[in-house]
Amino acid sequence: MTNDNQNQELTDGFHLVIDALKANDIDTIFGLVGIPITDLCRLAQAEGMRFIGFRHEQNAGNAAAIAGYMTQKPGICMTVSAPGFLNGLTALANATVNCFPMILISGSSEREIVDLQQGDYEEMDQLNAAKPYAKAAYRINHAEDIGIGIARAIRAAVSGRPGGVYLDLPAQLLSQTLSVAEAKKSIFKVIDPVPRQIPAADAVERALNVLKGAKRPLILLGKGAAYAQADADIKALIEQSGIPYLPMSMAKGLLPDDHPQTASPARSFVLAEADTVLLIGARLNWLLAHGKGKTWGKEPKKFIQIDIQANEVDSNVQIAAPLIGDIGSCVGELLKGIASVPKPSAEWISAINERKDKNMAKMAETLAKDVTPMNFHSALRVIRDVVKKNPDINLVNEGANTLDYCRSIVNMFKPRKRFDSGTWGIMGIGMGYSIGAAVTSGLPVIAVEGDSAFGFSGMELETICRYNLPITTVIFNNNGVYRGTDVNPTGGADVAPTVFVKNARYDKMMEAFGGIGYNVTTPQELEKALTEAIAAGKPALINAVIDETAGTESGRLTNLNPASTATKK
């Protein structure tokens, strides 16, 4: 644009936001348009960025978060003000808890109106609302600060422990003008946003000494290990040390799940019996029983913990050897001295292998049964076999039983291919993660969904069809939450709290948007449908009918949903 009076070329806040993102190699925005960001999204597309429009902001935020996890660059989610911002806030909080780099950018009302609570359109103090749930939160008030604001948000999202960042853009900011010459000076690329953090030499020596004293060592890999993209060094550390390893669900595939040193089929045994545990990118949170209790056996453990955030150490139990730094640097330093660490005893390895063989044989017997109707095991056997034939495929997984059984049955063979409910354990990530993974990788996605979990984001089937993404959604349909067999104890007309419409046909939803729908009732039908859908590379949904009696309450987390102690009077 030009100013005729001064004959000076001008630009505005809309262009500056796009220029700042592009200067930092960000080429995709996930979001949902509306006042005041519609024109910003149009401009982004016109300027060569990809805009993926969703039907709900939470799903757009989840897509941005998983894109950040896959690329180590912050995924961008853009929303309207107030309700749109709040819809995105759940995804922002989830990204922060899971350490996914993401930036939620929302339009907002003007400060002077919000601060006096004068009743603006969608008025809300979004900045302060976001702060408890984000790693950092910033507001940009002046066009000349857009470059520095974007830079701060990027650095905050990816440096140290990654997380979610909120960036507030008041409506009047976007229409502010600035000379093109001044604008160019204000935009820059962030230099070294993720600097290496080298662990202290004495900390490395301490960790190696603890490993040298171990009789029954174990390496535990968290999703942080996968995020670090230090794959070769992690593999070398495990193989050169000879130490058995246990991957958390999103670390599966960092080494192939059929690797001889994996302890996954003997998970309970190794957690209880190991005397020394090296944590790489894993936290001792609820997923690991907080590092204590009967899960971890009777004898105390010695823990070595690699983490970039020092205050994570000793969060639940004492850590004998903290190793503070980025995972790549810490593993690299351990690798230099790992030859001095004795190999695990034959007795320890033999005990693990014996337990693995026993559990794998028992699982194989269960998976081999072709029951009618299908149960979780017979359906997941099919998905396991298809994923093994297609190791590049992305697997998204959520639900209760659907999630828990899939974690232990479906093997992964490449890193950063499995995405699930993660640290927070929330439902509703399915379609957002699937779209984010498909857009980011350009590779097919299988989304394995419980029928309840699918309900949180199911409208995004239209988004999948609109962008013609190679996503096959498999819904394990057992007519309800956990099971479809509960009844209303009063005998009233309302169904029980956990029951859905019986025999629902989710495949018809996909067909309504132009995708391919399948309804299957046997493992053979499921295999045929899944193979066809992947080969077609088109949006598809498989309604997999599961025995409604097959599920268990809360999957394997019944202790988190205690029975009522109320007495009837």
Q: Got a strand count?
A: 20
Please identify, by name, the CATH architecture of the largest domain.
3-Layer(aba) Sandwich
CATH class term of the largest domain = Alpha Beta
Strand content: 15-25%
Structural class: alpha/beta
- What is the fold-level CATH name, i.e. the topology of the largest domain? Rossmann fold
Describe it for me?
The chain has 569 residues and is of the alpha/beta class. It has 3 domains: 2-186, Thiamin diphosphate (ThDP)-binding fold, Pyr/PP domains (Rossmann fold); 201-354, Rossmann fold, CATH 3.40.50; 369-545, 3-Layer(aba) Sandwich (Rossmann fold), CATH 3.40.50.970. The chain has 22 helices and 20 strands. The strands form 4 sheets. It has a 6-stranded parallel beta sheet with strand order 4-3-5-6-8-7, with helices on both faces. The protein has a 6-stranded parallel beta sheet with strand order 16-15-17-18-20-19, sandwiched between helices. It has a 5-stranded parallel beta sheet with strand order 11-10-12-13-14, sandwiched between helices. Helix 3 packs across helix 18. Residues 565-569 have low confidence and may be disordered.
Task: Describe the protein's topology.
Blueprint: E1 2-3, E2 8-12, H1 13-23, E3 28-31, H2 38-46, E4 50-53, H3 57-71, E5 75-79, H4 83-98, E6 102-108, H5 111-115, H6 126-130, E7 136-139, H7 146-158, E8 164-170, H8 171-175, E9 177-179, H9 180-186, H10 201-212, E10 217-221, H11 223-227, H12 231-241, E11 245-247, H13 267-273, E12 276-280, E13 302-307, E14 321-324, H14 327-337, H15 346-367, H16 376-389, E15 394-398, H17 401-409, E16 418-420, H18 430-441, E17 445-450, H19 451-454, H20 461-466, E18 471-477, H21 507-512, E19 516-520, H22 523-536, E20 540-545
Parallel strand pairs: 3-4, 3-5, 5-6, 6-8, 7-8, 10-11, 10-12, 12-13, 13-14, 15-16, 15-17, 17-18, 18-20, 19-20
Antiparallel strand pairs: 1-2, 2-9
